[in-house]
Specification:
The protein has 213 residues and is α/β, with parallel strands linked by helices. The chain has eight helices and five strands; from the N terminus they run E-H-E-H-H-E-H-H-E-H-H-E-H. It has helices at residues 18-31, 46-56, 65-89, 100-110, 115-126, 141-155, 167-183, 197-212; strands spanning 6-12, 36-40, 93-97, 133-138, 188-192. It has a five-stranded parallel beta sheet, with helices on both faces. Helix 2 (46-56) runs antiparallel to helix 3 and helix 4 packs antiparallel against helix 5 (115-126). The protein is globular and about 45 Å long. 36% of the residues are buried. Its EC number is 2.7.4.9. It comes from Hansschlegelia quercus.
């Protein structure tokens, strides 16, 4: 029977550098001979990717926050059941671009939905699954949004719905990520994402190596 793998989530505001960190982590794990899988939320499955297209494009106020929460959770159920848990059971390291920490930050602190509602829904829908380690890439939203818009414009990707919301929203999201880390420091590593990408990626790799050890 395969030894249980690990589940790592990479969190942070828009433009924090999650994609670059995940690429660097996958290269590092491969070099170490560790079987690893990169995935993302919303997404990770065919159904989740369809919901992603609905959730991340268009007007920032298009969805009622409760509808947004339910769609995010529906995508997560598919993701957990068909991707994350099977890979962990096979002994792999799963690295996910966002997980429930983003729901707490964006739909909870950002949108104003009650945190008990989010937690109860998470418990009921996916058994309260939490990552073994959450990397929180922390950057001032003013810097992050500018980075994110530049990246989306360059790639012509229509996923800028949250970037279009006001800075107060993004400040609340950032505070939530830091609060989550402070409440469970044993499961979080906060990384200064205002540094050069190489430094951010090195810090993320060190945190994951510590978990593997």
């Amino acid at each position: 029977m395969a030894q249980r793998g690990l589940f790592v989530a990479v969190e942070g505001g828009d433009g924090a550098g999650k994609s670059g960190v995940i690429v660097a982590l996958m290269r590092h794990l491969e070099a170490r001979g560790v079987s690893a899988l990169a995935t993302r939320e919303p997404g990770g499955t065919a159904e989740g990717e369809q919901l992603r297209a609905l959730l991340l494009s268009g007007d920032g106020e298009a969805w009622d926050p409760r509808s947004e929460l339910l769609l995010m959770t529906a995508a997560r159920v598919q993701h957990v059941q068909h991707v994350i848990m099977p890979a962990v059971a096979r002994g792999e390291v799963v690295v996910s671009d966002r997980f429930v920490g983003s729901t707490i930050a964006y739909q909870g602190a950002g949108r104003g939905l009650p945190l008990p509602l989010i937690r109860i829904l998470h418990d009921q829908a996916v058994g309260g699954l939490l990552p073994d380690l959450t990397l929180v890439l922390d950057v001032d939203p003013r810097t992050g949004i500018a980075r994110s818009r530049k990246r989306l414009d360059a790639s012509a990707i229509d996923e800028a719905r949250f970037e279009g919301l006001d800075l107060g929203f993004h400040d609340r999201v950032r505070s939530s990520f830091l609060d989550q880390a402070a409440q469970a420091p044993e499961r979080h590593a906060v990384i200064d994402a205002s540094l050069e990408p190489e430094a951010v990626q090195s810090a993320a790799i060190a945190a994951v190596d510590c978990l593997l050890a």
